[in-house]
């Protein structure tokens, strides 16, 4: 979009928030309560949409992730200056008017201009290529141990993964069940030293490839390995591959770390003036919902103070 087109796209929002999960919603609520004109852009396609219930969110333990988002949008939209668009940002560029956000979803395009942008898009996840794994994901099999470990307590569980943190995840899950088997799915995710450590804790390691997750309407019943053996398990935890989809920032010169996450300071500021990030778009990546919400509130406070102006100069002068 040209500068002239940006000027004609309507009033400039104080803040545009990209992503309507707990981090984005929390930031949006705090900023609109600070009397900022806030545009929330979100397609309502969270990575945890397969999960029936969420846990660990104070006063909302056991709520559906989609219901939590709906309630958050409803609270946000109850304030003057709040606007929500159900779309996806395809590109962000700079103009004399501020940041220009070009959006589209299902062949419907729109644009917006904002003086400040907060990125809170979260992550996408890719599961190992195991047949029927997606069928039981979110019910019998989960990825967040802190979120769902309690509900799988004392059950015979599988710990599935192909990443170097697999042993660490198994040791953590042992807090909830002493009947665990670690499956590397044919990978070298577990070192010999780690296998010895797990064995000493009574956690066996199976290095064979997994062909399929077996079960029925009542849930998972076991894992069928590539050699045909079926190992009985009633549930498990899988380590997905997480990745960010932040290509829409290519036009603003944002800095990314080796994991493709936005590099920010302790307050959520990126290297680009006026561009901030919160939640899973920043290191360390995947977070519990309540942690992401806290991150959004913290960065919102930084944005508001920066928009007020002069506060950082006063603090530097005192020092």
UniProtKB/TrEMBL annotation:
Gene3D superfamilies, A to Z: FAD/NAD(P)-binding domain
One of the Pfam families matching this protein, by short name: Pyr_redox_2
Keywords: Flavoprotein, Oxidoreductase
Catalysed reactions, semicolon-separated: [thioredoxin]-dithiol + NADP(+) = [thioredoxin]-disulfide + NADPH + H(+)
UniProt-listed SUPFAM superfamilies: FAD/NAD(P)-binding domain
InterPro entries: FAD/NAD-bd_sf, FAD/NAD-binding_dom, Ferredoxin-NADP_redctase_2
Protein name according to UniProt: FAD/NAD(P)-binding domain-containing protein
Organism, scientific name: Frondihabitans cladoniiphilus
